C-alpha cells in the first residue's frame, strides 16, 4: 500500500475516533442536562461576581477618579509603590499570615477528626443530632456571631458570671474583648466553632466511597480500629484532603473581614489586609490603592495554589489540574 494511502487512512481513523468521542460527550451532557441546569446558577454567580469584574483591575494602574472615570490618569506601578510605603502594610501582611496559619493548623485537621468520629457512631438518631448541632453555626452570619461574642464576653455576660460563681464574688469582672492577647485566639476558635461541622460533610462523603470489603478483610486479618484507620481510611481520604489543603493554602493571604472588623475596637490594634483595604482604600476613597492591594493579594493566592498543586502532584500524584 502506498505511503500516502496509509497516511490518509490514519487521518480518517483519527477523525472518526474524534467524532465518536465528541458524540459520546454530547450524549453524556444530554443525559445529565438536569444536573447541568442545577449547576447553571452557580456558574452565573461565579461569572458575574468573579470574572466579569476582572477588567476593573486596570484601576490599580490609574489615578482613579470616581467622578471623572474616563479621564483618570495612567500612573503605571505608582500605586503599588505607594502601597508598600504604607506603614501598616507590612504588619497587616504578618497579621494576616499569622491568623491564616493558625486557622489552617487548627481548623484543617478538626473536620477530618470529627468526620472519622461521626463515621464510627452506630446510633442513628444520636449521629444525626450531633451532625445537625455541628452544622447549625455555619448558617449564622458573621455579624450575628460577633453579636453573640459581645453578649457572651460582656462585663456582665455569661463568662464573667461563671467566673464569679466559681472563683467567688470578689472576683473582678474582665472585659475580654478589649484584651489584645485574647483577640487572635478568639478569632481562630470562633472560626473553628462555626465551620468545622460544615467542613466535615465532604470528608463524610469521601468516607462512603471507601469499599466496605476492605474493612471486612482487615477485621478478618486481625486489624484493630486504629490500624484500619491508618491503612484504609486515611489513604482513602488522601485525594480529598490534598485537594482541600491546596485550596486552603491559596487562602493564606485572605482573612475573615467580617469577624475581624466586627471584633475590632478602640483597645484592639490588629489590622489585616482586608481591613487595611477597607480603611485605606474604600473608607478614604482611594480606590486605586484598594484595587492594587486586591490585585497583589489575588496574585499571591494564585502562586500559592500553583506551587502547592505542583508539590502535591509530585508527592501524592493528586492535584487540581
UniProtKB/TrEMBL annotation:
<dbReference type="GO" id="GO:0055085">
    <property type="term" value="P:transmembrane transport"/>
</dbReference>
<feature type="transmembrane region" description="Helical">
    <location>
        <begin position="139"/>
        <end position="158"/>
    </location>
</feature>
<feature type="domain" description="ABC transmembrane type-1">
    <location>
        <begin position="93"/>
        <end position="308"/>
    </location>
</feature>
<feature type="transmembrane region" description="Helical">
    <location>
        <begin position="236"/>
        <end position="253"/>
    </location>
</feature>
<dbReference type="GO" id="GO:0005886">
    <property type="term" value="C:plasma membrane"/>
</dbReference>
<dbReference type="Pfam" id="PF00528">
    <property type="entry name" value="BPD_transp_1"/>
</dbReference>
<dbReference type="InterPro" id="IPR035906">
    <property type="entry name" value="MetI-like_sf"/>
</dbReference>
<feature type="transmembrane region" description="Helical">
    <location>
        <begin position="97"/>
        <end position="118"/>
    </location>
</feature>
<dbReference type="InterPro" id="IPR000515">
    <property type="entry name" value="MetI-like"/>
</dbReference>
<keyword id="KW-1133">Transmembrane helix</keyword>
<keyword id="KW-0472">Membrane</keyword>
<protein>
    <recommendedName>
        <fullName>ABC transmembrane type-1 domain-containing protein</fullName>
    </recommendedName>
</protein>
<feature type="transmembrane region" description="Helical">
    <location>
        <begin position="259"/>
        <end position="278"/>
    </location>
</feature>
<dbReference type="InterPro" id="IPR050809">
    <property type="entry name" value="UgpAE/MalFG_permease"/>
</dbReference>
<keyword id="KW-0812">Transmembrane</keyword>
<keyword id="KW-0813">Transport</keyword>
<comment type="similarity">
    <text>Belongs to the binding-protein-dependent transport system permease family.</text>
</comment>
<feature type="transmembrane region" description="Helical">
    <location>
        <begin position="34"/>
        <end position="54"/>
    </location>
</feature>
<feature type="transmembrane region" description="Helical">
    <location>
        <begin position="290"/>
        <end position="308"/>
    </location>
</feature>
<keyword id="KW-1003">Cell membrane</keyword>
Amino acid at each position: 500500500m502506498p505511503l500516502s494511502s496509509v497516511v490518509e487512512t490514519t487521518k480518517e481513523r483519527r477523525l472518526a475516533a474524534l467524532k465518536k468521542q465528541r458524540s459520546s460527550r454530547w450524549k453524556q451532557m444530554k443525559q445529565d442536562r438536569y444536573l447541568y441546569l442545577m449547576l447553571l446558577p452557580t456558574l452565573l454567580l461565579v461569572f458575574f461576581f468573579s470574572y466579569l469584574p476582572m477588567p476593573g483591575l486596570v484601576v490599580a494602574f490609574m489615578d482613579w477618579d470616581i467622578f471623572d472615570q474616563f479621564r483618570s490618569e495612567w500612573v503605571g506601578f505608582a500605586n503599588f509603590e505607594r502601597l508598600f510605603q504604607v506603614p501598616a502594610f507590612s504588619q497587616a501582611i504578618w497579621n494576616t499570615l499569622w491568623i491564616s496559619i493558625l486557622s489552617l493548623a487548627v481548623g484543617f485537621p478538626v473536620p477530618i477528626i470529627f468526620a472519622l468520629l461521626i463515621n464510627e457512631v452506630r446510633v442513628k438518631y444520636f449521629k444525626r443530632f450531633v451532625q445537625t448541632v455541628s452544622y447549625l453555626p455555619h448558617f449564622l452570619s458573621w455579624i450575628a456571631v460577633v453579636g453573640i461574642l459581645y453578649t457572651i464576653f460582656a462585663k456582665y455576660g455569661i463568662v464573667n458570671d461563671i467566673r464569679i460563681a466559681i472563683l467567688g464574688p470578689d472576683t473582678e469582672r474582665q472585659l475580654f474583648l478589649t484584651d489584645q492577647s485574647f483577640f487572635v485566639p478568639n478569632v481562630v476558635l470562633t472560626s473553628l466553632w462555626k465551620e468545622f461541622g460544615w467542613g466535615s460533610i465532604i470528608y463524610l462523603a469521601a468516607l462512603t466511597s471507601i469499599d466496605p470489603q476492605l474493612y471486612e478483610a482487615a477485621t478478618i486479618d486481625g486489624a484493630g480500629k486504629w490500624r484500619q484507620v491508618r491503612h484504609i481510611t486515611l489513604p482513602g481520604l488522601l485525594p480529598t484532603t490534598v485537594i482541600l489543603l491546596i485550596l486552603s493554602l491559596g487562602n493564606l493571604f485572605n482573612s475573615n473581614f467580617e469577624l475581624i472588623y466586627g471584633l475590632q475596637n478602640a483597645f484592639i490594634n490588629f489590622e489585616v489586609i482586608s481591613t487595611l483595604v477597607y480603611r485605606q482604600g474604600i473608607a478614604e476613597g482611594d480606590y486605586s490603592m484598594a484595587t492594587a492591594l486586591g490585585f497583589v493579594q489575588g496574585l499571591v493566592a494564585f502562586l500559592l495554589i500553583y506551587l502547592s498543586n505542583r508539590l502535591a502532584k509530585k508527592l501524592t500524584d493528586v492535584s487540581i489540574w
